[in-house]
Each structure stands twice: as structure tokens, then as C-alpha cells.
């Protein structure tokens, strides 16, 4: 693997991890919102 390919691979992995973190954060926020509405 050339250094360019390695950099591209790392960049893609970082982007995927960021997207995964955002989705996870969204679900946590959704869960808290639903819980808050039910007990509010």
C-alpha cells in the first residue's frame, strides 16, 4: 500500500467513524427525548 493509499484509507475510516458517532448521538438524543416526553 502506497502512502497515498494509506492516507486515503485513514481519511475514509475517520469519516465513517464520525458518521457512526453522529448516528449514535442522534439515537441517544431521541431516546432521551422520548423518555422526557413520557414522564414529562
TrEMBL record:
Keywords: Membrane, Transmembrane, Transmembrane helix. The keyword Membrane applies. It comes from the Bacteria. The chain crosses the membrane at residues 19-39. This is Cytochrome C oxidase assembly protein. It comes from Tsuneonella dongtanensis.
Amino acid at each position: 500500500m502506497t502512502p497515498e493509499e494509506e492516507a486515503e484509507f485513514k481519511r475514509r475510516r475517520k469519516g465513517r467513524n464520525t458518521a457512526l458517532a453522529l448516528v449514535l448521538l442522534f439515537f441517544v438524543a431521541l431516546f432521551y427525548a422520548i423518555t422526557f416526553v413520557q414522564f414529562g
